Amino acid sequence: MKPMDEERRGAERAKARLTTMLKNLDTGRILRVLTRDLSTKGMCVVTEGLLSAGTRLEVELKMPDRETPLTVQAEVAWSRVIDEPRKSYESPTAETGIAFTNLSPHALALIKHCAAFYGLS
């Protein structure tokens, strides 16, 4: 039996630490983040500050066996604080779920390959 989170997500996740760039398509703001996990449906990243659900993103994934990053469209599914700031002027550390949108067959194949690299069959 699959854990409830896997059932809701619709895809198994591989624990993967990938350097990733997120570009907010509405504001142009760019964030450099690290993934916690990855699947063919989306990923979880650690961010500085909360991101609003529904925010449209361009995601640039730096994969371990490719020189050229993979760029895909995505949307913030959820974001929650995992560590409160120590100082009043700092942003909280957050965990953010990101859902891929409109993946091409080529992008899907690359993400599957990357997930397999990290131990997901």
Please tell me about this protein's structure.
- 16% of the residues lie in helices and 44% in strands.
- It is an alpha+beta fold and 121 residues long.
- The protein has a 6-stranded antiparallel beta barrel with strand order 2-3-4-7-6-5.
- The chain is globular and about 45 Å long.
Which class best fits the helix and strand makeup? alpha+beta
Low-confidence stretches: 1-7
> What's the N-to-C terminus distance?
17 Å
From the structure provided, what is the oligomeric state, counting identical versus distinct chains? single chain
Strand content: 35-45%
Shape: globular
Q: Helix segment count?
A: 2
Order of strands, main sheet, comes to: 2-3-4-7-6-5
Total count of strands: 7
Amount of helix? 10-25%
Radius of gyration: 14 Å
Mean pLDDT value: 86
Question: What is the succession of H and E elements?
Answer: HEEEEEEEH
Largest sheet: 6 strands, antiparallel, barrel
